[in-house]
Structures are given as structure tokens and as C-alpha cells.
Structure of Dihydroorotase:
Amino acid sequence: MRPASPKRSAGRTLRPRGRGRPVRRWIANGRLFTPDGKEAVGHLAVEGGWIADVRFGPPPPPAEVALDAEGLWLFPAFVDVHVHFREPGQTHKETIETGSRAAARGGFATVVMMPNTDPPLDRPERFRAALRQAARTARVRVYGTAAITLDQRGETLVDMAALARLGAVGFTDDGRGIARSDVMRAAFRLARAVDRPILMHSEDAALSAGGVFRPEAPPVRRGVRPWPKVAEAAPLFRDVLLAAEAKARYHVQHVSTALSLEAIALGRRLGADVSAEVTPHHLILTAEDIPDVDPDTPEGRRRLGPYKMNPPLAPAADVDALRRALADGTIDLVATDHAPHAEDEKARPIDRSPFGIVGLETAFPLLFTALVRTGHLTLRRLVEAMSVRPAARFRLPGGRIAPGAPADVVLVDLETPRPVDPATFFSKGKNTPFAGRVLYGWPVATFVAGRVIYADPDRVPPSALRRFGGR
């Protein structure tokens, strides 16, 4: 984004310090977690795209400070292992360029794209083309998963070896489950052979049967087709058994019910290498929050569209279980499942509108406001779930603040409230159920390899942008 002149805002404006361009550029006076997990004011030196030094106590000499972050938190930039950037084939919804700008604004330095594009990323030439497009247009580090089966039909396995050589970080038919157990068994064995995880959208389509909301959602009483939780859990119980047998890495996507947590626990007891993610919306919204409106009217469709997601929102008891599971580590990490759609698509009749909501630009503020400020989750655990754990699980850069680590960091203001305004989103998608909600914890600046790739123009002056190579 273009640098803008700094203006006084409700929050504190960052101040540039010093002249020239020192070999080491310091971000000074930010709050960090110390190596032993405590909070302290600290200072971070960036050199050549890497973190060169981290200090606590007195700041460096003023002439060496490129950015004064007093009053802000400095975290390892976030890592999202589940995004839909819609390119190729659906660029009216999103592109890699617009999606990556949304990621940068949300504090993410690294994202992993899902392969359910049009056509899907199921062949080496398609996967290679997507990564080349990302290299040309992305603001953040963009990695990709490849499909498990050709055309995502759940029948014939892709050439995992060739796709792994091209850089696929894992394999998934995300958006669809795989019904055939023999195909899944073979997929786990092949994924282990190429040392890549299987990421699974757990859904038995015969059980979900075109459902839209959980049975507890008010629109179900008005005739909207229900989606039982067993449709998510049944294939998950199968897959943890297969993963344990194959000794393969298995990652469960967007867990939404307590029953699915039981399947994950079973897999771990059996020795399976299982990790799990949860989305912000499944941690915050419940089935009971869905508006009780007539789904057959234009106004009803408009209001219900932002609540249609896959898997559906669960009852409050399940949401409580998900929160506890994230807090105690049963659920390893947070992923947004960023799923942009055009406004007219989400306003279709509820049984024909697409599943999904956008999430990159609001993920951290939502979770900080709803869970950390209310005492359900510690700040350290939230940062771990959004940065440390996803980077480690998928062997991606970042996820830590330490000398020698990539200078992928984010500055966050935890004190200044601001409402969610979809009109300001960098994403093409505006489909969110959180419009108007007042949140704390908005990112102020995001760095990738020491370069500013997003800065709030009201908070970061152009001189600071120039010293960190911003645009």
C-alpha cells in the first residue's frame, strides 16, 4: 500500500527515529514475550531480512532506532494454513494478490492456499502455475497444498511425489470429503512416503445430505435442511484409524464439534500423528446466533448468507468445548478458512448460496476481543496458536522471535477499539457475520523478511516505511 502522511488517531502514532540507514534497523520499545514466557519491553534488530538481535531493558541509541513501537505488542507474524484465494478460475471472488493484501493487513506473513480452484491444483503443471502467480503478485509468503485426488473426485490419487517436489506442503480435497476408505488408506500411505501431511475436510456427504445448518439453528424450524454433527465425526473416526495404521501425518481442518474432539483424542491414544485447527468463527459464533428469519425472502437470504459456512456453526455446548480444547492444546492451532464470495452469490436462496466467510483481516482482533479479554484464553496461547504452532507443524518460516529467525513480525495495538467495516477490507470478499462488531487488537504493521508489507497509514509515518523498504 502507498505510504500516507501520519495523522493523529485514537491510538498512538509511531515515531521514526534517527537518520540514514544503519546496518541494523531497530524496532524499539515494543512489548514482547521473553524466552521464559513473561511480558517485557523489548527491542528487535532487523538485518538482511533476518532478526539479528533481541534485547530487553534500555533501548538502543536513538540514532539506531528506525521505528518506535512504544505502546504496541510485537509478535511473530501470524501463519494461516487454510486460505482460499480463488485463483485460477474464480477471480471475481478473490485473487492471490488481493488475498495476500488482506493477509498482510491481518498480520499474516505466511499463508497456505487450498487447491479447490477451477481447475483444481491436482496436477504438477497447475500447481506450478499457481506458485508462479503467487511469486509475481503476492505480498506475503504464499505456499500451496495440492489435491489428494484428481479433479477432487475422491477416486484416483494425484502424483504426490511430483507435487511434493514442486513444493506442496500437504494434500487435501478441501471442500469435499473422500467417501472411499480404500482411497484414503492409499492416500495416507503415499503421503507418508513423500513426507507430507494429509489435511482433511471431514464430511460424509451421504450424511450431510445437502444440509445447511445444525439442527439447533433457528432457520431449521423454518424448513432449512439440517446437517447433523455425525456427518463431520464419522469420517474423522475412520481417518484417525487409517492415519495411525500408516504412521502418516494427519491434520484435521476446521473442527466444529465436541464429538470430533473425541475422534482426535482416540487417534492420539492409538499413536496417530494428528493435529487439528479451529476457525475464529467456530470459536465465537453458535448455531443459536443465526438469525431467526424467513429464508425465502430476499431480506432473510441477505441476513442468513454470512452465517452459512462449512462445517456449520455448532450449539453453544460445542463452542465451549472448542474453546477449552484450544486453551489446553487439544486443538493445536487457529486457521481462518478465508473463503471470499461475491455479494450476489451469498444472497442466493440459502440451499444454493456458497459456504464460507472471509477471515484474514479480522482473525486476531476477533479472538483477542472474544477470548483473551474475557479470560477464556491467554494472550500467549493465542499467539502460539496463530503463529508458533502452524509454522512448526507445517515446517514453514517464521513463528518465532529470536536471533537468526526470519524477520516476519507484526505490531499490534491491543488498546484501541475499532468496528469491523467490510467496506474497508482489502479482500474482494465482504462476506462476514461480524460487520459492526467493535474489536480490540488490530495489527498496525506487518513485516515479511524485514520489509513492511502492510502499515496503518494513520499510525506509521512514511519515513519509517522507507527505512524498512515499505510500499
